[in-house]
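G.,

No rush on this.
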Amino acid sequence: MKLNQLRDLVAIVEHGGLRAAARRLGVAQPLLTRSVRGLEKELGTPLFERQARGMVLTPLGRLFHERARGMVNELRRARDELAQAQGSGAGTVIAGLSIMPHMGLLPRALPAFRRRYPQVYLQLIEGLFPDLESQLRSGAIDFYLGAAPGTVPAGFIVERLFSNTRAVVCRKGHPLARSRSLKALAGAEWALPSTDYDNQDDLARLFQEYGLPSPRVALQARTALSMMVALANSDLLALLPVQWREFDLTRDSLQVIAVRESLPAPDIVLIRRAEMPMTPAAEHLCDLMQRNAPSLQPTRGRA
């Protein structure tokens, strides 16, 4: 079994087929076909089912792919670590971030990171931990920083950075912008920021806690960009991390409705794999974000 065979297998799965994988790897498609057939012969089992809609992993293929993906990612990480230790500063860092770090931490950390590692390719993936867990476990993502999940499975290290709060966000000039209570907002329509957590129930519980009916949810935005566009161009409201109010790109189009009720949010945490050290570049990015985290801790007066 050769490493390039594992690489080929992972590429076929990640890119959805032989043609796209060959294009991504810069090799001829027949070479990939021979590589996979050789791997299947060595393992003594088919890894793919050839169907009309393309190549689909068999049950055994899915098991093997998880191991192969981890090995390919560890090889990438080892190569990057060696290059960075030698001073070349090359390699790749892949970070999973929820909305809050995108808004509050990345703008502070990115300039210093680019100065220290100008040759590193940085890939940012927006999401919450449940959506990114498998990629973090396999090594496809170096670390997750964002809203804490309800539970974290074994095999991960969790570091709490700070407790957070939320704010009600709307477009500038919204008819309800001067409201000071959730009761005044009960008849509004709302947007939810993610599908990874049960945010609709969370929003309903918040209103019910104050004896109010559940609000109507009209939109769900998977990304911060989708949320910004939706709020700026409608009368929708959203319950978002309080750091949105200080984000430069939304300051001219969005505003916070200063309700008197407490609006708690999940803690902000850093999660990494327990058994695998990060590369120097990934460690540096984590360190920059950790150092900036205390400045984003909401205080009683600011929340």
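When you get to it, here's the other one too:
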Amino acid sequence: MPFAIYVLGLMIFSQTTSEFMVAGMMPSLSTEFEVSVAAIGYLVSAYAAGMIIGGPMLTVGLLKMPRKQAFLALALVFLVGQTLGAVAPNYEVMLIARVITGISSSACFGVSLAICFSLVGPQSRGRAASIVLGGLMVATAIGLPAAMMFDQYFGWRASFWAVVVLVLLSGLLGQLFIPSSPKPESVRIRSELGAFRNSNLWAAYATSMLIIGATFAAFSYFSPILTNLTGFTTKTVPLLLAIYGVATVIGNIITGRLADHYMMPILTIGLVSLAVALVTFGLFAESSTIAMIAVIVVGLVGVPMNPAMATRITRVAGTGSLVTTVHGSVISLGIVIGSAIGGLTIDAGYGLVSPLWVGAVLAILGLLSLLPILRGKSKAQHTSTIRADEQHGSS
């Protein structure tokens, strides 16, 4: 694999660490800005809103720019937003910083994948995507705990500055190792916009949203479920979440190597496994053994379906920056929807176990969204078999 692909993965790792680390530093930020923990939670929402709404809009504005230059420009915008967060004197400035970083992160996600796909052949796109998207998993397993450790020992601003350094390093490496690309022609721009008339693209987006929604409906509430229902101590839960993070990395490596040839089996088996794990967890949440196994399975098959999801998008709509950016926004929307519905069911009085059932339902819906494709393949194989038999009989 070209070294540039690993540089893209480092950028995604840096930006994803920034996205999630606020959730691990809520007490420090709440004290610093003299606001409630709920208000700090809005900083997570502000980042997500920037990704969902602003990212695609910014990408449209960059379609006429060569992808390498677009990548570097977005890295610079993110750098400005992250630096603003590091020096934020009050809550309002931090909120603005989170919106800026969310917008640039979403656009950078799409451009990074578009560059990644342009550097390898069609037969290697799934594996290449797994390296770039591996930044998401490594950020959960390593970036988030590291940011929390920086917060505990050096203060929350040190965590922000650490990400600034990582983004700056990623940008410099990108300048050195990402090949220059020609200025896009207007034909490509029209082609990217025209891709959204493809109903298969929206079907793929829907499946991706349901997969991520199912995963985060459960993952967002793992900590209270594992402590209050399963009975693990608060000191044990970080270890379990670290194991979850390692499972996502392992799952991503496996799916990345298989996605190019077994994209639909990965999505089908992954969704079945995810649904079974969440249903089992929901039924036996008080069992520490089952809970631990379920957490590992969700880690192995949830977010690691990303390479297969990305491969499906490229097959139905190509490798355009806007198509991949909107896919990133759809994934962010899945995170918001899954965690929000899970929270609503808890507030409605259905108990801490309810997010697991929400996740299971979303996983089943994701599986149902694949049925038209699976039926189409089955009919095609049946027709092919009949034709082969007819040819054999006539001979």
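Confidence is low (pLDDT under 50) at residues 385-390. The CA atoms of residues 343 and 349 lie 10 Å apart.

Enjoy the weekend,
O.
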